[in-house]
């Protein structure tokens, strides 16, 4: 029974195969039919196309040239947009078309497998793209200006939501090529791409010093570029405006290779583009004063070698600002080479220049100074030399005049000049900081010479060398205090020489100065009576830790301290004992000495290591003052 069943099954299979071969026509036909069924199951995974030159997305190219390749591919046919299927094509033949219209396009490709089987329509390789040959509208630059405070060139344009390329060039701006995608930093001839995006403004901080042209080019997804709109042009700076009287011109931009000729033109240019500093080459910048009027936020740096901005030495390459006005005037119209008025703060610096008042010879009725600071102006003047000027015996000169202002004057040399009345510094109502300077009341045959004359205010006078180098027929004084409450700390103060009275510190007008830690020299090299402190009216708040030297006394004149009643104290102990009683109660007077220091022989009043004076009581903390100690190791 079992054997009969096996024979029946075999018989049925043989009959089925015979019928199947008959249906296919031959054993070969049978194999092809089996392969077709296999392909139907495997689908497009059987052929992986590789299309070279096929477009995608958006393009401005109106033609195609496509190479068709693929694994197990022997032939193909294609269908472009709504056209009919092409005849069978060998894979060595490209798909080409030209004159494609603007708008979307579609390409379908059917492949023939090495088995001879074609892909099904639903498995065709399909690509889509859009032809766009219309460029966007051009865009104009509406603002193009360099800003020092912003740190670059500020640009703005009207942007109707387009993609933007911004190009910069020292010459004409080159246009981008259609169909090419650019990145920031790419070079197009002599132009560079500095911005790519969709914004409407940009700060170009990569522009070096020079004059630059800019253009904006709008582009679309097909990389069609609009023509460049109105160009923007500006000069970019390296953080400075440059001035050179020897080679400059005020029509120049003020860059290092095209400097301005005058300092004032440099200040104006710096202010216009928010640049904080002007570099000034060596030379004589003389004119009818004021030659320079400071502007807030614009500092001046002199001492640059003409022709080489990398070399700066204010002693070797002197930058001189000099007033040439010698007309008759009044104190309110004092001639000045440089001035600073309201709104000027200590952030505005004058550094490394020589500033000179006018030279009126022996003419009277002149009021002359090098620098005039008024109405709250408070610049910083440092590392500079100020000369007051020259005039007749009925004239007045000063290196620096300060009226109701609070400047910082530091690390400079100030000479009053030569006239009837001379002041190194003349202050009225000032809150100035005067520190680390050498100040000379300098007078030859004048009526009076004062290193510093201060009236009212609360000036701070620290760490200066103050003296009157030359002779005067009248009174000479290191510091003349008329009213006010100045702080006088850590100075060398000499009263002068050859005057009828030489006083280190003179107090009058109800002044209450604080006098501490100074060397008070009555008169260096003078045989006339001299005083450390002369009290006319007013009393000091404190006299402590001072060294009284070169006090020339004789009879009823000359002494360490002269009070308002005319009493003279010639010893430290007498002076300090007197201050412990009426009318001086409440005034500190202690720690003073009369030990003569040993100065360097060069007239600079530098202490040598052998000086006997050792003032250790009280005093100020000078650790933050930045002194270089013992410069010549003596």
Question: Gist?
Answer:
By secondary structure, the chain is mainly beta. Residues 1-7, 28-45 and 627-634 have low confidence and may be disordered.
Overview of the molecule:
With 634 residues, this protein is mainly beta. It is 9% helix and 39% strand. It has four helices and 50 strands. A hairpin with a 2-residue loop joins strand 12 and strand 13.
Show the helix and strand layout.
Elements: H1 2-24, H2 27-42, E1 49-52, E2 57-59, E3 64-70, E4 73-80, E5 89-90, E6 95-97, E7 103-113, E8 125-131, E9 141-147, E10 152-157, E11 163-169, E12 187-188, E13 191-197, E14 201-204, E15 210-219, E16 232-236, E17 241-243, H3 263-272, E18 277-281, E19 283-287, E20 292-293, E21 299-305, E22 308-312, E23 319-323, E24 335-340, E25 349-351, E26 354-356, E27 367-373, E28 380-382, E29 385-387, E30 396-403, E31 408-410, E32 413-415, E33 421-430, E34 433-435, E35 438-440, E36 446-457, E37 460-462, E38 465-467, E39 472-482, E40 487-489, E41 492-494, E42 502-508, E43 514-516, E44 519-521, E45 530-535, E46 542-544, E47 547-549, E48 559-562, E49 568-569, H4 572-578, E50 588-590
Parallel strand pairs: 2-8, 17-18, 18-21, 19-23, 20-24, 21-25, 23-26, 24-27, 25-28, 26-29, 27-30, 28-31, 29-32, 30-33, 31-34, 32-35, 33-36, 34-37, 35-38, 36-39, 37-40, 38-41, 39-42, 40-43, 41-44, 42-45, 43-46, 44-47, 45-48, 46-50
Antiparallel strand pairs: 1-3, 3-6, 4-5, 4-7, 7-8, 9-10, 10-14, 11-13, 11-15, 12-13, 15-16, 21-22, 48-49
Helix pairs in contact: 1-2
């Amino acid at each position: 029974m079992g054997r009969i069943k096996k024979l029946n099954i075999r018989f049925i299979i043989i009959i089925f195969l015979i019928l199947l071969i008959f249906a296919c026509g031959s054993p070969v036909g049978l194999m092809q039919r089996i392969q077709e069924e296999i392909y139907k199951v495997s689908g497009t995974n059987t052929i992986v196309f590789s299309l070279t030159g096929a477009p995608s997305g958006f393009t401005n190219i109106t033609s195609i040239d496509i190479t068709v390749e693929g694994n197990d591919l022997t032939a193909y046919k294609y269908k472009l947009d709504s056209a009919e299927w092409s005849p069978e094509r060998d894979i060595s033949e490209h798909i080409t078309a030209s004159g494609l219209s603007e708008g979307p396009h579609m390409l379908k490709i059917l492949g023939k497998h090495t088995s001879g089987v074609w892909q099904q329509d639903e498995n065709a390789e399909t690509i889509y793209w859009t032809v766009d040959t219309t460029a966007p509208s051009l865009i104009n630059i509406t603002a193009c200006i360099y800003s020092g405070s912003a740190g670059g060139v500020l640009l703005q344009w009207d942007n109707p939501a387009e993609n933007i390329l911004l190009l910069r060039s020292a010459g004409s701006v080159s246009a981008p090529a259609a169909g090419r995608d650019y990145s920031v930093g790419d070079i197009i001839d002599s132009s560079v791409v500095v911005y790519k995006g969709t914004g409407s403004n940009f700060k170009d901080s990569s522009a070096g010093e020079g004059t630059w042209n800019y253009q904006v080019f709008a582009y679309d997804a097909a990389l069609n570029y609009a023509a460049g709109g109105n160009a923007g042009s500006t000069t970019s700076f390296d953080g400075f405006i440059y001035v050179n009287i020897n080679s400059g011109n005020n029509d120049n931009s003020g860059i290092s290779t095209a400097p301005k000729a005058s300092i004032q033109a440099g200040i104006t240019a710096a202010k216009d583009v928010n640049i904080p500093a002007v570099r000034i080459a060596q030379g004589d910048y003389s004119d009818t004063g004021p030659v320079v009027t400071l502007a807030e936020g614009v500092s001046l740096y002199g001492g640059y070698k003409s022709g080489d901005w990398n070399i700066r030495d204010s002693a070797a390459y002197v930058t001189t600002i000099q007033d040439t006005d010698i007309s008759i005037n009044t104190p309110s119209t004092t001639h000045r080479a440089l001035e600073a008025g309201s709104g000027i703060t200590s952030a505005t610096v004058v550094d490394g220049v020589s500033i000179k008042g006018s030279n009126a010879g022996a003419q009277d009725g002149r009021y002359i100074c090098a620098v005039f600071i008024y109405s709250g102006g408070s610049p910083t003047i440092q590392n500079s030399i100020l000369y007051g000027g020259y005039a007749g015996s009925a004239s007045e000169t000063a290196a620096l005049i300060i009226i109701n202002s609070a400047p910082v004057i530091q690390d400079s040399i100030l000479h009053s000049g030569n006239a009837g009345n001379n002041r190194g510094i003349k202050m009225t109502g000032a809150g100035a900081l005067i520190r680390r300077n050498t100040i000379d009341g300098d007078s030859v045959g004048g009526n009076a010479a004062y290193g510093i004359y201060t009236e009212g205010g609360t000036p701070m006078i620290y760490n200066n060398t103050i003296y009157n180098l030359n002779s005067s027929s009248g009174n000479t004084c290191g510091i003349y205090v008329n009213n006010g409450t100045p702080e006088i700390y850590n100075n060398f103060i000499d009263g002068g020489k050859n005057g009828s009275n030489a006083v280190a510190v003179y107090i009058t007008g109800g002044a209450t100065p604080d006098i501490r830690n100074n060397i008070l020299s009555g008169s260096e090299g003078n045989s006339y009576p001299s005083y450390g402190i002369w009290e006319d009216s007013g009393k000091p708040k404190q006299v402590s830790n001072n060294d009284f030297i070169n006090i020339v006394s004789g009879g009823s004149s000359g002494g360490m301290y002269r009070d308002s009643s005319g009493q003279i104290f010639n010893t430290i102990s007498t002076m300090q004992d007197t201050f412990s009683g009426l009318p001086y109660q409440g005034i500190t007077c202690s720690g003073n000495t009369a030990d003569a220091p040993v100065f360097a022989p060069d007239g600079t009043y530098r202490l040598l290591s052998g000086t006997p004076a050792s003032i250790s009581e009280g005093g100020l903390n000078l650790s933050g003052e930045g002194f270089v100690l013992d410069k010549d190791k003596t």
